[in-house]
């Protein structure tokens, strides 16, 4: 029976490999790599990365996978580090700012914040971001954000994915902000990224004609003008992939909260959302929660101030005069947390003074009319009642350094630490994945030396200082 072309090709390949392995015909690794590269180029199977690599392929790594460090493609775009194109975008913005006003030098200084933002936006699925560094985004933050969007667009296009336009929708409260953001995005035009700003400063007819002649990847707009153009069907925002709300407090001062919700509802996809908000105004937390649809978020901040890093975290101080009353007080607070929790399911971190105190609390917390399931190995238990479900993890201050408590939206400090700095570490480290969090503290007579510094922390964060704590701090 005659052999097919595939079988003959496989036979020729076996003979060729055998000839290459033979000692009398063996060549050096460098020459073998050059031959392999030439053969792939002639057969039309040359890798896209081959021309950009500084090392030649080898028989052990004929496609330069080791040097190219292939990224994983799983359920969308997921990468291990920013690409060189992102750095090119940042440098273009920096050079343009330096030529105009001598600025732009601080773009790379915010690199740690930018990489965290890139990780959130490039994850699969992407994570929403809430930044509480200040009232609005700085020029450096905007540069990192638009460069991250450029990087994602470039990667998608390289994979053959059709990118909907606009890809990024950047909402600003005023015309001045729109012009500022547009000036940051302008240097990206030479890199193939077009941006358009929409604001009341120009006629709507002019903007409609401009949108017809251009399909921008980035759209910077005020809410009012955007809704007007959407109503006239001059722009379609249903496929937006990234949504930025710059200055949530400013939008609330302009009574534009409903307009933001209308824009969010007009986006039919599930965009990655980044919100910049003032940390001192707690009234914006409800609007942020509504815009984010209660999804898991990531809190970011460019500074280390307690006020910024603990934004929208409520601090409540409970007095307990005697030590033997502490366990009943903890029971009462847990019942209150369970009753007030919106989802009727809560995850609470309970912090005790020592391991002995932690075990004592775990064994003594038996709520009335509740079913408590204990796990003595991990000092954790679950409370099931008619009200809801609460999972409690008990830790002591010594083991807190090795505990990841970012996922806990509620922390109950049964025993205050010797220094208020340890308390602020918990305050700024908890509730990193929710908009609103809570920290409860039980204050006893032994904690009197901490009254003044604790009052200062509460005041700086805009929290209510109880009368008993104010009297102790002033005495």
Automatic annotation (TrEMBL):
It comes from the Eukaryota. InterPro entries: P-loop_NTPase. Keywords: ATP-binding, Helicase, Hydrolase, Nucleotide-binding. GO terms for molecular function: ATP binding; helicase activity; hydrolase activity. Residues 1-47 are annotated as: Disordered. Coiled coil: none annotated. Residues 10-20, 37-46 have a biased composition (Basic residues). This is Uncharacterized protein.
């Amino acid at each position: 029976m005659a052999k097919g072309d595939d079988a003959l090709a496989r036979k020729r390949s076996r003979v060729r490999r055998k000839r290459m392995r033979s000692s009398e015909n063996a060549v050096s690794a460098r020459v073998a790599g050059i031959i392999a590269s030439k053969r792939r180029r002639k057969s039309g199977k040359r890798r896209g990365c081959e021309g950009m690599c500084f090392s030649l392929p080898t028989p052990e790594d004929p496609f330069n996978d080791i040097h190219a460090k292939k990224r994983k493609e799983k359920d969308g775009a997921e990468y291990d580090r920013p690409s060189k194109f992102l750095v090119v975008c940042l440098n273009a913005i920096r050079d343009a700012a330096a030529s105009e006003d001598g600025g732009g030098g601080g773009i790379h200084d915010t690199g740690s914040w930018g990489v965290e933002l890139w990780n959130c936006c490039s994850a699969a699925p992407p994570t929403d971001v809430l930044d509480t560094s200040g009232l609005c985004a700085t020029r450096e933050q905007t540069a990192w954000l638009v460069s991250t969007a450029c990087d994602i667009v470039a990667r998608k296009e390289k994979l053959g994915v059709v990118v909907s336009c606009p890809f990024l929708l950047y909402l600003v409260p005023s015309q001045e902000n729109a012009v500022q953001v547009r000036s940051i995005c302008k240097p990206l035009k030479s890199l193939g990224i077009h941006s358009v700003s929409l604001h009341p400063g120009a006629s709507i007819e002019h903007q409609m004609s401009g949108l017809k002649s251009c399909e921008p990847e980035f759209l910077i707009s005020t809410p009012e003008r955007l809704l007007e153009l959407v109503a006239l069907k001059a722009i379609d925002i249903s496929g937006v992939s990234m949504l930025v709300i710059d200055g949530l407090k400013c939008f609330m001062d302009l009574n534009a909260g409903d307009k933001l919700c209308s824009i969010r509802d007009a986006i039919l996809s599930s965009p990655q959302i980044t919100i910049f908000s003032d940390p001192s105004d707690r009234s914006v937390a409800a609007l942020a929660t509504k815009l984010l649809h209660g999804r898991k978020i990531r809190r970011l901040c460019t500074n280390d101030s307690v006020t910024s890093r603990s934004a929208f975290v409520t601090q409540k101080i409970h007095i307990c005069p005697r030590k033997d009353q502490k366990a009943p007080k903890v029971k009462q607070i847990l019942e209150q947390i369970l009753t007030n929790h919106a989802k009727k399911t809560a995850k609470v971190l309970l912090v005790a003074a020592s391991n002995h105190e932690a075990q004592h609390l775990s064994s003594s917390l038996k709520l009335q009319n509740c079913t408590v399931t204990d796990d003595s190995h991990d000092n954790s238990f679950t409370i099931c009642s008619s009200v809801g479900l609460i999972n409690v993890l008990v830790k002591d201050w010594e083991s807190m350094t090795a505990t990841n408590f970012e996922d806990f939206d509620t922390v109950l400090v049964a025993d205050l630490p010797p220094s208020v700095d340890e308390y602020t570490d918990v305050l700024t480290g908890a509730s990193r994945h929710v908009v609103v969090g809570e920290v409860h503290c039980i204050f006893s007579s032994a904690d009197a030396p901490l009254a003044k510094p604790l009052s200062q922390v509460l005041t700086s964060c805009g929290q209510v200082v109880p009368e008993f704590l104010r009297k102790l701090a002033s005495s």
